[in-house]
Sequence to fold (451 residues):
Amino acid sequence: MTQRTFSEGDLPSFDVAPSVVLVSGPVDFFVEEAAGQAAAALERGGAERIRFDDDAAPEAVSDALLNRSLFSPRRIVELDVSRLLGSEAPGALLDKAMEAWERRSPAGRREAFRHARALLSALDLAPGGTASELAAAVCRKLRRQPATALLAELLEEMPEERGTPALILPALRTILERGNDGVVALLTATAPPKGVELLAEIARQGLVLEVGVGDVSEALGRYARGAAREREVSIDAEAIERLRLQTDGRPELFAAELSKLLAWAGKGGRLRAADVRSNVEDEASEDLYLLFDAVGRRDAGDALRRLERLFSGRDVRLGDRGDRYFEPDESWPLQFFGMLTTELRRMLLIRATLDEGGQWDPTMSYAAFQGRVLPRLEEPLVPFGRSPFGSSQGKVSPYLWYKVSQRAARYETRELARALARAADVDVQLKSSAPPLEAVTAYVARLIAGG
Fold:
């Protein structure tokens, strides 16, 4: 079959589903939520559903997978296979196990046991010996000795496994080969590592659904409210939004920081936006194109604030619509200045072109720009046979040049030309010992001031 992004409106019914459907994603909550929707789609029209917990006997799981139901022509077998697929982050599993265990609730205990088993599997440690010895071995490998006592307490109470989960693999491979003959395995996995053989097999012969979060604000809010209810903590809407902003809307980071905040607040406590500000590091990325917009508005205050964030070491968003991320390194000052001067060259080019063509309205809509301005930009220069506004492939991006024209509207051609003439001096400064932020700040401030 294939691998695709999860979409509730695109879930297969039982009769057309492959024999194995895997729902995976970075956060347990969203994976389980999506799996519930997938199960409802498969069950429509009637089916027997069997859900196995993490401590189910592998023999019972294999039997359910390999044999059809006696009571229904359709059987759905639900199972989490995170342990079978493995994990690249045992340290994160330890954190999750500890946080869940400290909740001291039945749901927290079950979650803690699941993470602890995955942790032992990731470290290739058999659950033999005493709980204290096993906890010491785990924390020694991860260099997390302070967690030894709490982990030992968890392992002491963790139910003994009835067989090894690897026994389920042959059954999964068997039903993958034979196809849907009345049994569909609905599997879940949280943050599986890439390159795992079983994952590749399911993608080839079954269906892998990758779970996103859709409307990020709404989804993270739903998650936060549910987690707060479970911990019996009140959480303000402003606190949820502040946490979303400070974690850059990244589900894994949001979930990890929320768990810490809820533990900090304690049962019966309340989380406010101020608590998030004081307890969570601001990990929000900065959008390079928002700086370009501030420069276009000649808003010195906003532009200089954004410059500080762009040089603070945080991730940077790129792309015409801010949809690509990268982590700056030591080459960032020169990379950034190259991007800035490229934008200024575009502003100068379109400013000069629009000046030559007579008046134009800088407040025009995108649709009006496409109808009135874009045809001029697409005209090829006679000697070269292509437009100077085209990409390396010769295509003119309407949205890119619409945004550039808006940014250029408040500048005169000679101002942009002077700024580009000064760029060589700044480039020399960046390649010397001059503080990068100071050099770029002075350049941008002078540009906006028109000096």
